[in-house]
Amino acid sequence: MSELRVYKRGCNWVYRFEIASENGKRKFAQKCGFKTKKEALEQGTAAFNAFNSTGQTITISEIGVADYLNEWLENIQTSIKPNTLAGYRKKINSYIIPRLGNYKVKNLTASILQKFINDLFDNGYSRNTLINIKAILSSSLNYAIEPMHYIISNPMNFVKLPSPRVEPHIPTRSNPHVFIEKEDMQRIFERFPERSTAHIPLMLGYKCGLRLGEAFGICWEDIDLDKKTIEIKRQVQWKDKNKDNPEDGSYWYFSKPKYDSCRTITIDSELCELLKRERERQRKAQDYYDELYVHNFRTQSGRLNTVGDGEEVHLLCIRESGDFTQPRIMQHTSHIINSDLNIKFDFHSLRHTHCSMLLTAGAKPKYVQERLGHKNIQVTLQIYQHLTEEMKSQGDSILEEMF
Questions:
Q1: pTM > 0.85: yes or no
Q2: Are 216 and 327 in contact (CB under 8 A)?
């Protein structure tokens, strides 16, 4: 039976153990260069146990957390969306590396990582942020086991998020999406009336519950004005310049909706009539501008451009001259609504409002989930739960006034 041996060779220590033979010849796994017997025994034991449980020889890596996470991002970049990769990189650089970057991957323990998560919680970071950071660490450390063979177990498996009932030491930094009252929506539409660049995106958020990228990704081919439906099958996303390939530049591109939530939704008569008028305006504008009219194209990779490279796309959200109306206009729109109209607003609040209105009116949560493309019904039910508690509070107030 194979056993682990640790011995001194010259000034350094070595571990060695026998592995499976090949062509009748005995083979050994070994590593030398350890300064102390304790270090050789520690790593030898880890490698020996890993071999006995997995059949693989694993050399515990000395790589640091910062270097490893950059290596992980490099290795997974072809298997995830560019926008997802950018989100991972931002969270790694903003939250993980500043606090864990000085550790070696092999030295990360469940207690170190649990304290890291708890500290973020106590400093007011939202539960959603904690969920995302935990997912990044879990995924990256799984990759460190297989295929990288840097470690033999994932300490994140034993890390738990703080209970939702626990209060952080510092109030949560998240800005919860708000319900926008009908009177406030009327003021918003008065400030951004029909034919203004923000009007249709605002309508799509309010009346359809679309995400920002989905609203700006709609093409006329997706709209059936006779059936009063819109197919949601893409979104627009922004890709920053790649520092390793700066010639590629930055650009907008098409991708599938978040969570691949392709769906067909029904629209009301008022929105349908608005889209009919917009379609006619765009037809007249194209005739008026003639050869100066801007045409938009989608390359095979999904990149959006105006140089005639790829398939022409007929976007709904365009300016009079045909130029694509970029989602960034909503930053200016939100600033005006918040500062000039004094209405608490972000685009996602339109989606929250649409969901809340449907649930309050009696729509089934499953219908709302499918219409909004929620990842699972729990997201819908969280909003439903909030509304239920709010209605109970209102009912309690009425009861108090009655007596």
A1: no
A2: yes
